[in-house]
Each structure stands twice: as C-alpha cells, then as structure tokens.
Amino acid sequence: MAIEVRIPTILRTYTDGAKSVNGEGATVADLFKDLESRFTGIEQRLVEDDKLRRFVNVYLNDEDVRFLEGISTPLKDGDSVTILPAVAGGAVAGGMR
Fold first, then answer.
1. 49-82 in b/e burial notation, b at 16+ Cβ within 10 A?
2. What is the pLDDT of residues 47-89, one digit of tens each?
3. By its UniProt entry, which SUPFAM superfamilies does this protein fall under (predicted)?
4. Alpha-carbon gap, residue 10 to 3, rounded angstroms
C-alpha cells in the first residue's frame, strides 16, 4: 500500500530534504509509525499523547483528519497525506488596521 506524504519545509531535516515520501499504514497513526521507522524523530514532532500536536495539521486527500477520525483515520492505497504546521498571526504595531 503506497501513500504519498507531503512534508513541510520545517520537517524536511528528518527526510533528508525530501518534499514528499511514500509511506504505508492502515491508519494515520500507523503511517506515522512507518515514517518514524525510517525518519527517526519525526513522529514526536507530529503526535503527543496519541493525538495530533496542537500546531500540526494533517490532511487526507485535502480533508482535515481532525474532522474525520484523527490519527485513527483509515488510509487506503493511493491516498495523499499532507502535513502542515499551523500558522498563527501576530499583532500589528499600534493596534488593528
């Protein structure tokens, strides 16, 4: 079962610079374990206490897995998983404009 995983720039140090890698797994959690077996340290950047970290977004075929079954979301051959760090805004000096 081949699943394409798109890796954000901030995590590419784990994948030797690769923008995308192939992975395997019946669920998103299994996919992360597969990635960890080849790219040590990546899983802890994505998961904490069996849930996605607060500032990590994961999309399965453009669908946010938080609105599916979280890391228990099932995967199938040919799926595409995109990992994106959450981006927060800041304040503009002097208040809102």
1. eeebeeebbbbbeeeebeeeebbebebeeebebb
2. 999 999 989 999 999 999 999 999 999 999 999 999 998 876 6
3. MoaD/ThiS
4. 20
> Which domain, by its residues, includes 18?
3-85
Q: Is residue 22 part of a domain?
A: yes
In this prediction, residue 87 carries a pLDDT of 73
pLDDT in tens, 19-34: 999 999 999 999 999 9
Angle (nearest 5°) at CA 64 between 43 and 81: 50
**Number of residues assigned to the chain:** 97
Query: Which domain CATH number covers 70?
Result: 3.10.20.30
